[in-house]
Amino acid sequence: MAVRLLLFSLLATLSSVAGFAADRVDYARDVYPILEMYCVGCHNTDDAQGGLVMDAFDGLIRGGDSGSAITPGTPGSSRLLLMASGKLDPVMPPDDAEGPDEQELATLAAWIEQGANGPEGDLPVKRQLRTPKIKPTFEGSSPITAIAISPDGRWTARGRFGEIEVSGSGQEVTTITDTDLGKINSLVFSPDSKQLLAASGLTGAYGRAAIYEVGDGKLVRELVGHRDTLYAATFSHDRSLIATAGYDRVIVLWDAATGEPLRELKGHNGAIFDLAFSPDDKILVSACADETAKVWRVADGQRLDTLSQPEGEVLSIAVTADGRFVVAGSGDNRLRVWRLVSVDRARINPLVATRFVDETPIVNFAISPNGDALVTIAQSGNLKVIRTADWQPVASLEPLGESATDLVFSPDGKTVTVSLMSGEVVRRDVPTLENTGTTAPESDLRTVYMDLGDPASLTETKLRQSMATNLPQSLDQDAGATTSENASSLVLDVERHVVIEGVISEPGEVDVYRWPANRGEVWAIDADHVDSGRLDPIVTVTDAAGVPVTRVRLQAVRDSYFTFRGKDSTQVGDFRIFNWQEMKLSEYLYAGGEVSRLWMHPRGPDSGFNVYPGEGTRWTYFGTSGTTHALGEPAYIVRPLPRGATPLANGLPVFDITYENDDDPFRKHGKDSRLLFTAPEDGLYRVRVTDTRGEGGAEYGYRLAIRPAEPGFEPRVEKIGKPLRPATGRECKVTVDRVDGYQGPVTFELEGLPDRLSSNFPVTVQEGQAYAVGMIWAGPNETGWDDTIEPRVKAWAMINGKRVERNVGTVGELAFDPATPSVVPRIVPLGSEVGTYENWTLQVPRGQTVSARVAIDRKEGFNNEVSFGKEFSGRNASQGVYVDNIGLNGLLILADATEREFFLTADETAVPGKRSFFLTAGVEGGLTSHPITVEVLP
Predict the structure, then answer these.
(1) Is 254 a domain residue?
(2) Most CB atoms within 10 A, among 62, 335, 372, 459?
């Protein structure tokens, strides 16, 4: 009965429009507009709910997950018509949305009854939306949404809704208007400046790129094929191709001469905002709302890489004129730069730089004609100049005060022209890099090291007694006491090289000593607690008025925070911080007043940075002291500003670091203080000493030294404790304790090693590093010796133009065990052979990874796994050179196996040059391979 009622209802509907049904119903003209109005929003190629695609005829006929939607010739059994008329659940459109009226239902029924025929050819482009026309009440200027200047500098084009104005250098003006222009999202001149390419379209309907003659505004050709509006259209440099992209997530390459589409590039999951060809036109890069940029090969449309580091929509993109870099601005307020290496095959393009530019998204940018600089515009209206030599922000231009849409450099690179939503065009002068104030002034401090002989020994008590005797001459209470010092403190004058015994006798007491210093002089200030004393000293250097002296200003260039867990004040390993992929080795990390430095990259998703020195207790920099960091605590990558340089307003903080220290930055002296002070000007300076907790009493004695700094080093060598074995070696680690700021290289040399043994000495502890790893190796035919062999080690360095040598000691008395070792490790090249125990050279360019093999000769019966370590498996490698792709198990040869490939990466910060390198098998106390040479190439 229900079926009969349903059929009766449908027949009644058809009867009421019998005259209409008698005519042929056209799919494109009559049916598709109904489907588009009520159905396509949820059932389209990109979002096919229920598996039903209704924006394509074949998809509609095919049906969805529930079966066929249309039964040609039979309206009464067509699910689409039954659901649309409310006769079958679920009713469509759902959620009480407005559905087709009786006339539209009758049209659908008639079409199905006539056989549900499809369109003849492609559907025509929909040039208008069926929406109410709302007239704007504002009668001001329309926004300028795009702007372009021709390569020859003669023409300037400005795009408004439905109109393009092209003005020439001779004051001639051409206005381009046609009914299909719509909103102009992009304007680009052809390389010969004769034609103009505009990207526009109708949102929700189609995308259109149009080519116009510049001189008369005549439409040459239009490229229509996208299913939604276009955001980008650009010529290739040889003008043979045009690339277009927009809201429909598809990139189309067109033949510029014929207007025929050549290929589609698919893979993005959001609107595509920008496109750029490489200078040789082999590569196309795209910027997308899916928070990625992609690199495509133009010849066949293959995707070569996805640049996934951005944390927001990628809004603009370019390839530098030399073809070396891809640059992109994104919604996470950052500018990113990748080195373009995937030019002929799929490769990972390494991230070179990430710069936090503004507190709002980077809307667009333009690169100067000479490639030295680029200018960014942010959503806030701020404009910043970026130097491309190091991708550092160097200047802020006058803010726009409102939202900008586009910008372009003048051909001479002296100005940028910016289009605004207000309908105005403004120009800003771009300063030359020499005038940006980012380089250190020529008058910057030149350090002076002194030899003042032996120090004078003084006591706080005698100094105070002397001041009491000579009160009128010495007392400077007015200038000697500040709000930050104990009101009863007096300034005690001392000589230029002194050691003072004193006591913080009361809680909150601050002892203040004053001495004269000249500009550039480097002073070492040491504050030690006396034996068994309870003092935890902290020292501060102030000027004559008691104001702390600024040591350095640190400009934050990247923001982050601690993830997974916090850190105590001494840990060096597993620093897990947000956005670590964009950070570089040796960059300074500021958190909670402490400055540390990144030493080793995380080795995977379940690890973090190691900070300097890479082992032991954490070093700090600029006199800051180690502190505890909580989970989620903010952290920043910072760079020191040159003296007198003005920080760029990039939305990130600037930290002023004063001359103050609580705990020794290199942690050799526990809770005692060590501070290096360089006098910024001639004058009197003060040292304040107190307890960091504000405590005091008779047990809070200290020893304060104000002395000329003596840069140097204290070398050590670990003795070899295990006997040498045939065809293997033993490690001996050499370490440097750096004194008074010396950060240069230190070379260790070995003396007294007989020719029958070999080693990788001399070894050098690199600049700023703490250790290197030496080794001594015995040949395969070695049988042992009767004499005592105890090689000596000496270390030397060039300090202030002088060679400074130190006797280190010995590596221990060498012993030999002739028994066959469990394994004999060897490093051998891939694809070629070298002598079994030959020192060959493995070259690795900075920023790249190469591979070699580690092979082992096993002792009969020894079939166990052999580990060569984890992140430290590459022994004596240069800083930034490491064994890569080792996983959780490290560099491991499996049981019964005799070799494996391993990968060696040189970070882009690695210092070019040659250095000995070896591996150590973790068996029998550590058996080393014969060393090879790793050469880091620029």
Answers:
(1) yes
(2) 335
pLDDT band at 934 (very low <50, low <70, confident <90, very high): very high
pTM of the model: 0.81
Q: pLDDT (tens digit, 9 = 90+) per residue, 195-247?
A: 999 999 988 788 999 999 998 899 999 999 898 999 999 999 999 999 999 99
Q: Is residue 817 part of a domain?
A: no
Cβ atoms of residues 791 and 757 within 8 Å: no
Least confident of 28-37, 311-320, 346-355, 407-416: 28-37
Count the domains in the chain: 6
Mark whether 693 and 725 lie in a shared domain: no
Is 27 in a helix, a strand, or coil?
helix
889: CATH? 2.60.40.10
Could you tell me if 341 and 350 are in contact, meaning their C-beta atoms sit under 8 angstroms apart? yes
Same domain, 633 and 716: no
Identify the domain boundary among 788, 810, 832. Answer: 810
Residue 496 within any structural domain of the chain: yes
Give the C-alpha separation, 430 to 436, whole Å: 10
Domain span at residue 53 reads 2-113
DSSP 153-220: S-EEEEEETTEEEEEETTS-EEEE--TT-BS--EEEE-TTSSEEEEEEEETTTEEEEEEEETTT--EE
Asked whether 474 and 486 are in contact (CB, 8 A), the reply is: no
CB 513 within 8 A of CB 500: yes
- Can you tell me whether residue 4 is helix, strand or coil? helix
pLDDT for residue 125: 59
One domain, residues 722 and 782: yes
- Return the closest-CA partner of residue 536 out of 336, 693, 384, 714: 693
